[in-house]
User: Fold these one by one.
Assistant:
Number 1:
Amino acid sequence: MNHIFKALNDQTRRDILMLLKEKDLTAGEIADKFSISKPSISHHLDILKRADLVYSEKKGQFVHYSINTTIIDDILQWIFNLKN
């Protein structure tokens, strides 16, 4: 769970998740939405992948990313259980 909270601790990564909430995107499409370098976006995507917050799938020469809602559900359940 530490990987998840580390991943969520960065605004850029949270913004990437919000983009992926709307639709799947390639790494290039994600990078086009930010004013930081493509290698930096790749680093953020790698952290999100290691935390299982996003999936990646290579299609031809592009890598497509999608949000993993299952892990989000697990986080919410954990937080809910803290309250009860």
Note: The first strand starts at residue 25 and ends at 26.
Number 2:
Amino acid sequence: MSTAMNFGNKSFKPRPPDKGSFPLDHFGECKEFKEKFMKCLKNNSYDNSQCRLQSKDYLECRMEHQLMAKEPLEKLGFKDIMDSPLSQAEKNDKPLN
């Protein structure tokens, strides 16, 4: 007699994370950005909302070095701090060089 409970012979099928793997930075290509982010967290009692620019810079570095899949920064929650393109009014007010 088996002591294991059988719930309809359903087997667990593991699947990869939605955003893929997140490889380690073995060559330290983004170490400077990571350290700035970690220092900011420490200086702000680990309130990550105070370190969004450092987080954005770190993720941009990881994407540039193929350490994570390229994603639009808006999808990663940085829409509000993105460099917005100049409006037509601002372009017209800008002096020509």
Note: The helical segments are 31-43, 52-64, 88-93.
Number 3:
Amino acid sequence: MSEKTVVIHVRFYSDGSVSEIGERPMSLSGQQWFDKLTNTYAMDYMALTGGRGAFKLTPEELDTVKAAALQ
């Protein structure tokens, strides 16, 4: 059985700033959430074409980074 993953999609403006990002806590801007994810799970980020990217995390990793973001 494979481990479950959560895919967090990111869309960027042409200047490289975040326009949309999934699973974002309401207390953070899209850019702040992206920065938090990148600082914690950079190895789990995939750059995609068309100004997009994605993080692949386990549900536990997502819970951990969300909890840390709220502190």
Note: The chain has two helices and four strands.
Number 4:
Amino acid sequence: MSEQQIVKIGKEQETPLLDIQGLKKYFPVKGPLGNLGGKKGMVKAVNNVSFQLFEGETYGLVGESGCGKSTTGRTILRLIEPTEGKAMYKNKDLFQLSGKESRKMRQELQMVFQDPYSSLNPRKRIGQSLEEPLAIHQIGNKRDRTDLVMDILEKVGMRIDHYYRYPHELSGGQRQRIGLARALIVNPKIIIADEPVSALDVSIQSQVINLLQELQEEMKLTYLFIAHDISVVRHISDRIGVMYLGNLVEEARTDELVESALHPYTQALLSAVPLPNPKMKKERVVLKGELPSPLHPPSGCVFHTRCPFAMDVCKQKVPVMEARSKDHQVACHLYE
């Protein structure tokens, strides 16, 4: 049996729009002399992750900082080259495409970054930044591009005069709307949203999330929504995958995951979500210790060093991802 057996969960009798199979991304750690010092080890940022995206859905990828969520998203788009695995899109492996093919395919897969300010050129006006992807993909002439920019600004809730402003003249929420507009302007099929609301105020977060949902319905979009806040992820996602130290440890439909989480790590994430009524009580799952280093991950189950239910087998054997119900799978020795 392979290191991690993946049971596919998704819409019945439907081909996935994007199928990630055994994705791995390892970063070499070098000595103080760089290449002369040789490799000191490998950081397993993403370790054998598999999941599927179906057309029109939102798949939430959640986990604490450093678990490999953002690396997963960037690797799918080949902003970072993968170490191993496949990303099947329209019967083509994105990791095997040539530069020209990849550039063409990238029009259909776009990304919204966590920090909109650093992803926008501070020397360019907003209109120039939004017209740039249209020029790269040779969409329309100069006049057509301006019209498309004006149209997308309106769709994301911005005014026409924002076309002439610079990024530093906008608020954080406005800049994130511009980042979303830049991804949408080439009419993609899939949006990978990497922590799109984590840097925003709570009131602005809800506005951006509602905007994402409205645009998804209007433009028939599919989202891979990456975040560390499971309360945000469960609000927008149809299905959720939980990552820990580069590994996918649980996956289920959102309502089932929230109501009956199986993995102790998922239970801990859900127990940390504040309740709307302070008088309501729930059992809090407290994790001890710090997140282990991905350079030297624990043997067996990578979560056993912090798990309150750890057994001897957890230290020795890697748990296999197995289905516990029709739409729920988990990698945990407690359920074997």
Note: The chain has ten helices and twelve strands.
